[in-house]
Specification:
about 50% helix; alpha/beta; 6-stranded mixed β-sheet; 5-stranded mixed β-sheet
């Protein structure tokens, strides 16, 4: 395109917008009785409010992607995260799953502001001495039982019986490692002397137990696969610790729960296990950062209800999710959800439509309700100011007229006429909107009336 033609198009566009702006300005001035400055100020205010509305509308949109920190490939956490992804996908939200070593790493990621993650599964009891002020819980979603397998013929019901043994307590940074260390310490078992605490992953720990290289292993579902545990439950000579002190543990440690693995629950035909096994288990919480969008909070809880609400070996139907508060406070959005469920819009409309309507109500409605009264106040203030300017000259006219006396010399008349000329010049220089034209011309007429009366009184003398 030629330069001259480009300049011509640019000039045409410029003229179009200028003429449009002038038309809008003129219409507002004539309709609302505003002056040029007040009209431009009102237009600037409207433009700023419009920009603010657009900004808030865009910013208030729920993200289309949620980042979840879960567990490693074979863990329960990773498999459950995949179920969340499917549920969220039905509502047009993508779940990005990041693998981890388990609960402790999940908590470290969530509490680190520089790490990009929104939610994650965290085993209860890990938050001691951690910075969790910016984290909230959406509720407990499951039990996470501790399985302690050992080799031998003599039954083990007390952890203190493992003193002087070789124990695999899970990899460093895992929830298994944290809980195993805490429980062993409560039983007077520490690293050193004859006791050897080995930090290793579940696959290696299971192989070492089968090979007789360790005496016992600690497993939890956030890291150990169900396949490994089933294999050990069926292995001759390998047994599962029956926590006969489970009630005492739950009384002493607030985040622990007592569970029972019923006799024959793993294999009816082979009667595995061959007796009721008492277990202890922390709950698993769905932890999020406190800036999680309310719509996404509801969506995650809907998914949790669908995924965790079914009956399993260790829980009844509808037992989870539940707002049990341990170290983390339950978020306000989660508290509302547990009390009344999804909001009206999300209950009857698709997620994207409900989100759109909700944003319109939250962003547009309050601003419009403020803007409309505000736009009414501006003309009222301007009109009041214009009336005060007109009344000002009426006050001076009244004061001048009161000085017109029956007998008045030429000097007095000349002085009053000079003052009247000043008033008339000031009135003629006034700029008022068309809506005040009648009052303006009446004022000018009254100036003429006072002049005629002054001249008449002077002629009479």
């Amino acid at each position: 395109m030629e330069p001259d033609k480009k300049k011509g198009i640019a000039a045409s566009i410029k003229n179009f917008f200028q003429s449009g702006f002038m038309k809008i300005q003129t219409n507002i001035m004539e309709t609302m009785g505003l002056g040029k400055v007040a009209t431009i100020s009102a237009l600037i205010l409207i433009a700023l409010v419009t920009v603010l509305i657009v900004f808030l509308f865009v910013r208030s949109a729920p993200p289309k992607t949620i980042i979840m920190t879960s567990g490693d490939d074979n863990s329960m956490f990773y498999k459950i995260a995949g179920k969340y992804a499917k549920v969220l996908a039905r509502n047009g939200v993508k779940l990005k799953i990041i693998k981890s070593e388990g609960s402790l790493e999940n908590l470290q990621r969530l509490s680190n502001p520089s790490y990009r993650v929104d939610v994650g599964f965290v085993q209860a009891g890990l938050a001691k001495d951690k910075k969790i002020e910016k984290l909230v819980s959406l509720g407990s979603v499951a039990y996470e039982p501790l399985f302690v397998f050992y080799r031998g013929t003599k039954p083990v019901e007390l952890l203190s019986q493992f003193k002087g043994k070789k124990l695999a307590i899970g990899p460093d940074g895992s929830g298994t490692n944290y809980l195993a260390t805490a429980l062993l310490s409560m039983n007077g078992i520490e690293q050193g002397e004859l006791t050897e605490l080995r930090e290793m992953d579940d696959e290696e720990a299971a192989q070492d137990l089968l090979a007789g290289k360790v005496d016992a292993v600690f497993f939890m579902a956030d890291s150990a696969s169900s396949g490994i545990m089933r294999k050990l439950l069926h292995e001759p000579g390998i047994h599962l610790v029956n926590f006969t002190q489970a009630d005492a543990y739950t009384r002493r440690v607030g985040y622990l729960n007592k569970l029972v693995l019923p006799k024959g629950a793993i294999d009816f035909g082979k009667n595995v296990p061959d007796q009721d096994i008492h277990l202890i288990a922390p709950s698993v919480e769905l932890i999020a950062r406190d800036d999680l969008h309310p719509a996404l909070s509801d969506l995650l809880l809907e998914a949790a209800k669908e995924i965790h609400g079914r009956a399993t070996l260790f829980q009844g139907r509808g037992e989870f999710p539940v707002p049990l508060e341990h170290e983390f406070r339950i978020s306000d959005d989660a508290t509302r959800y547990y009390k009344s469920g999804k909001s009206f819009l999300y209950r009857y409309f698709p997620f994207w439509m409900a989100s759109l309507i909700n944003r319109i109500l939250v962003v547009f409605l309050p601003i419009v309700l403020i803007l409309i009264p505000g736009m009414r106040v501006i003309p009222a203030i301007y009109q009041w100011g214009t009336k005060m300017r007109i009344y000002r000259w009426y006050r001076q006219l009244l004061a001048l007229e009161q000085n017109i006396i029956a007998r008045m010399d030429a000097n007095k008349q000349k002085e009053l006429l000079a003052r009247l000329d000043q008033i008339e010049q000031a009135v003629n220089n006034m700029k008022v909107p068309a809506s005040f034209a009648d009052q303006f011309y009446v004022l000018r007429g009254h100036v003429g009336f006072v002049r005629a009366r002054l001249l008449e009184r002077g002629a009479a003398n």
